[in-house]
Design a protein that fits this description.
The chain is 25% helix and 8% strand. By secondary structure, it is α/β, with parallel strands linked by helices. Strand 2, helix 3 and strand 3 form a beta-alpha-beta unit. The radius of gyration is 32 Å and the shape is extended.
Length: 191
């Protein structure tokens, strides 16, 4: 009710309405939309995408099934999508006006239904936690420290070789800025 004092609508993430487990299966639904509707707020869900990686497996990689479930079962007032054409196609779908004669493919998905249908043989294996490493199991020696090495004891303070930057094995590449325009000029003359 505090939100109603400064807003007429609320935008929720999809996972706030239908949370997924770590394997992207729907397991439960929340009552947050109903609670916000009781506070007289419009509820919108975001962000819907057509890419299958953004959807729970229960929606069968079909963005229309996902939107349909959020609108009919989740009771959201609208959706925010990356693909407005998909939402418009859903809005104009004639199956939505068929009432009890609506085809089965337009019914919302059952929350947790797909996870119940999947046998343990097809679920990814549960990985056991790895035991902590012991020093004796590590084969490589530790890296040297990154602190600067001390100056050799034989160098004198008056020697300016310490002021010079150390040389490395990298070959310096000299670029001639005259060569590129010259090559373009020759190419133009030949054409």
């Amino acid at each position: 009710t505090d939100i109603k004092s400064f807003a007429n609508s609320v935008v929720l993430q999809k996972k706030s309405v239908y949370p997924t487990n770590s394997d992207l299966f729907l397991t439960v639904s929340t009552n947050i939309v109903t609670t916000l509707h009781h506070a007289n707020l419009s509820v919108y869900a975001q962000t819907f995408s057509n890419e299958f990686v953004s959807q729970a497996w229960d929606f069968f990689s079909d963005p229309t099934v996902e939107i349909n479930t959020f609108v009919q079962e989740g009771l959201v007032d609208g959706v925010i999508t990356d693909f407005p054409k998909t939402a418009d196609r859903y809005r104009r779908n004639k199956c939505l006006t068929m009432g009890d004669n609506m085809p089965v493919y337009m019914l919302p998905v059952q929350i947790g239904g797909l996870l119940q249908a999947v046998t343990k043989d097809y679920l990814p294996p549960a990985s056991a936690p790895l035991p902590p490493l012991k020093e004796s199991e590590v084969k490589e020696p530790p890296l040297p420290s990154a602190s600067p090495s001390p100056t050799p004891s034989g160098s004198s303070a008056g020697n300016n070789s310490a002021a010079q930057s150390p040389k490395n094995a990298q070959v310096k590449v000299t670029i001639s800025f005259l060569l590129s325009p010259l090559a373009v000029l020759v190419a133009c003359l030949l054409l």
